[in-house]
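Sequence in, structure out. Go.
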Amino acid sequence: MLSWYVMHSKPQKERWLYDQLSTMQMETYYPCLHVRKGKLFSHTSKPYFPGYLFVNVDLETTGRSILKWIPGSLGLVSFGDEPACVPDGLLQKIRHRVDEINDTRNKILESLKPGDGVVIHSGPFAGYDAIFCTRLRDSERVQVLLKVLQDRTMRVDLQVNQIKTTKQIRNVS
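Output:
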């Protein structure tokens, strides 16, 4: 019977292992976040779960040893000697969350310009209004001006997913 399992990859070999499994015609899910790098904003991806990916196999027919000895693999994640089975519902939630993060991040970064208003919705500054300054070299982070005491502002570096544009908030209302 087909079930989803978690595979442990060698360090920074998730993509390699994904390709190996795909070549063997195994259904695989490798959750990645799409990021832009450098000044030229070339696209790349990074694993949502570094060192892990999901494979949908029938262990009775496939066998565990092939999954352990495939290049790039450290084997199935197991508890005791029993491979950890991932419920379909949990995998669907992970897929949905990764898609949501990728969608939101791209929309926010494409729409923001210096001077735009944002609201911080998570972290220690949650609930505060701020002004977008710039995307930082690490494209996962942005810099905003946070209004503090009286008319003083301070620059704060945040993760992209910690802010929402005021446009997004108005559209939701």
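Check: The longest strand covers residues 3-9. The chain has two domains: 3-109, 113-172.
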